Amino acid sequence: MAVMDTTTEIDWMACELIESIPGKVSGRPVVRGTRVMPDAILHSYELGDSVAEIHEGFPTLSVLQIQRLIEFGLEQLEQRYP
To answer: What topology does CATH give the domain 6-80?
Structure first.
């Protein structure tokens, strides 16, 4: 799987799991109720980490949240680069 710079490629605010609060992580998109940036999740997946491995690294997120973030991110990239 090719590694892409997802930080500028994905409109994370279109995902229901994401929020942006001024003053929280400089207003960058984060998973609602956390300080976890969704780009970190997708990047880990692109580097070959499994959902279980990502969950170990981000235990505040549920497996379902991780799966949804990956799904959303990949869908967004597919729309841009069919």
So the answer is: Arc Repressor Mutant, subunit A (1.10.10)
For residue 71, the surrounding DSSP H or E stretch is helix 63-80
Q: What are the Cα distances from residue 57, in Å, to 9, 44, 53?
A: 23, 10, 7
Note the pTM of the prediction, 2 decimals: 0.86
Distance, CA of 8 to CA of 13 (rounded, Å): 12
* Residue range 30-70, pLDDT digits in tens: 999 999 999 999 999 999 999 999 999 999 999 999 999 99
Find how far residue 32's CA is from the centre of its chain: 11
